[in-house]
Amino acid sequence: MQKENLLVEGERILRLNWKDGFTIPTSKLYPFQWNWDSGFVCLGQCQFDIDYAIREMNSLFSGQWENGMLPHIIFHSENEKTYFPNFDFWDSNVNNGAPNKPKTSGITQPAVHGFILEQLVNRFENNSSIIEFAKHLFPKIVNSHRFLYKYRDPEKEGLMFIFHPWESGRDNSPIWDESLNRININPEDIPAYQRRDTSIAPTDERPTSDQYDRYVYLLQLGKKYAYDELGIFQESPFLIQDTLMNAILIKSNNSLIQLGKKFNFDTAEIEEWNQQSIKVYNDKFWNDDIECYVTYDLRGKQQIKHKEIGGLTALYAGIPDQNKASILNKYLQNLHNRGYYICPSFDVDSPLFDSKRYWRGPVWPQMNWMIYHGLRNYGFEETAEIVKNDLIELVDKLGFYEYFESQKKVVSDLNNGYGGKEFSWTAACIMDFIKQAD
Ligand code: GLC
């Protein structure tokens, strides 16, 4: 397909998934508004109608809780019954600060909105309605960060914890296996439930039923404590400080600091958070043997020693020094030389690598977008170009899917990507990449 046609198709998909105020990731599989998906979606929307991006963000923040938490799903419609776990299963009103309308889930997702807002402002610097919107959204985003620093970092380390794999955005990554296996499921611990995803997408591209039981167990644990973080911190067998969650928070802190300077807002609190977070991120997550940043298991009190895509997002947040950044760049170059589209979401040399199954191996569009910009931060233009062009090539050959096979020799015999099709963030990232290429 010509680049021009990819742009046209991207716009068609974003318009198709637009539900008059917000965008669903894809029909059927994910029929509501997802937190970090919406952020990336703005990158595409702003190319054809900036008003969509403004409404997208406003819809998302209409689900923000009083304590500042920005939920991972906003259930704008209570009539859509094809998703599990739906709003009634989450029952987020057990927490007094959750809005009654729209209904929401009880957990959060990576805090991308600070850097997305900065992108919008930089692109529309002379548009007064964008500037006005940015000033209106700014304190809400700060509040969502304040939630993380206040409730997700009880020991005031500077790193946030998650208590559910869905909060990391990387649902079934092998990095969660050990913590999830710690959970002993008794049948009475979880209510009977029916998955919907496996009747929509092929079973071998989705998490296993064992994993799903554990996701439901952790959801129930959150609900038991009215999604109040202290009880969860004390009890949850799954308690993780994640590389990606924390890198994105740091990147968005940086963006808020830049925006705050522009608007003459006080950013002292954010600067203080960020200094500490960057330092501890380097101290606690870097692993010399793995040659990457790794996630930390707070319950097991140890690093989770796997090479995995979350650690690479540190590049986007400007966390590594030039030396560490070169090590990460070499890793990507090496994968490229070995015949992989970069970047696979998990270590291709691990027995746990599974090139089809969701976060256990495939290439993800929004990850390529962040890694591309991260590499450019450090001057690795050549690798950045590969990351960008690999995604464009995959989408061009296989379609606007949710995620993609990473082994070139396998891709050559494929006609489609994996997971949901006509996928919103895929459309948005491609549109933005093509724009960068111009
Ligand atoms: C899956 C992904 C998550 C994404 C959601 C909606 O759960 O793992 O990152 O936000 O789908 O696209």
Number of domains in the coordinates? 1
What's the helical proportion of residues?
40-55%
Which radius of gyration do the C-alpha atoms yield? 20 Å
How is the largest sheet built, in terms of strand order?
A: 4-5-8-9
Report the span from N to C terminus.
Answer: 16 Å
**Which CATH architecture?**
Alpha/alpha barrel
Q: Can you tell me the overall shape?
A: globular
Number of strands: 9
Order of SSEs: HEHHEHEHHEHHHEHHEEEEHHHHH
User: pLDDT average, as an integer?
Assistant: 96
Q: What is the percentage of strand-forming residues?
A: under 5%
Report the top-level CATH class: Mainly Alpha
Structural class of the secondary structure composition?
Answer: mainly alpha
Number of helices: 16
CATH topology, by name, is Glycosyltransferase
Main beta-sheet strand count, sense and barrel state: 4 strands, antiparallel
- Distinct bound molecules: alpha-D-glucopyranose
List unreliable stretches of 5+ residues: none
